[in-house]
Amino acid sequence: MLKITLIVFFFCLGFNSFAQTSSDTKEDSQSILNLINSYSKSRDTKDTILLKKILTKDVDQLVSSGEWRSGIDAAIKGMMESSTSNPGERTLHVERIRFLSDDVALVDARYEIKNPDGSIRKMWSSFTMVDDKGWKISAIRNMLPAGN
Fold it and tell me: What is this structure's pTM?
């Protein structure tokens, strides 16, 4: 009986250690949320200086129209053109952050654009984040679900 009790105790102890979030992960998650907010702000205000600070030089972006934007210059140019040709209030709601390693994370977010006529375009965005002396966006994938 003692043997079974010890096995259950150590199993539960090990399980709890994996279930807890470390303070580093919490800090990284908050940094990533702040980065997504900065991205959203830079798009709303067309702040190319901020975008250059938060995107990697080799960033790539696949947008819902199927256009690939490779490199920071193409990505920023496309973002500015898109914000101009598709005006509206952009909102990103982070649904999940998944850490693949200490310096790579995937972020899934609901991406909504409230159009000037009041209609809302509902999409998904995924961001690949890399930590190279601070978190930056390395890739963006936007998707418009079928039927929307």
Answer: 0.79
Beta bridge partners of 128: 106, 139
CATH of the domain at 78: 3.10.450.50
Q: How far is the C-alpha of 47 from the C-alpha of 52, rounded, in Å?
A: 9
Neighbours of 105 (CB within 10 A): 22
Structural domain span for residue 108: 23-143
The per-residue pLDDT for range 41-87, each reduced to its tens digit, is: 998 889 999 999 999 999 999 998 889 999 999 999 999 998 887 77
Residue 127 included in any domain: yes
- Upper half-sphere CA count for residue 138 (Cβ side, 13 Å): 12
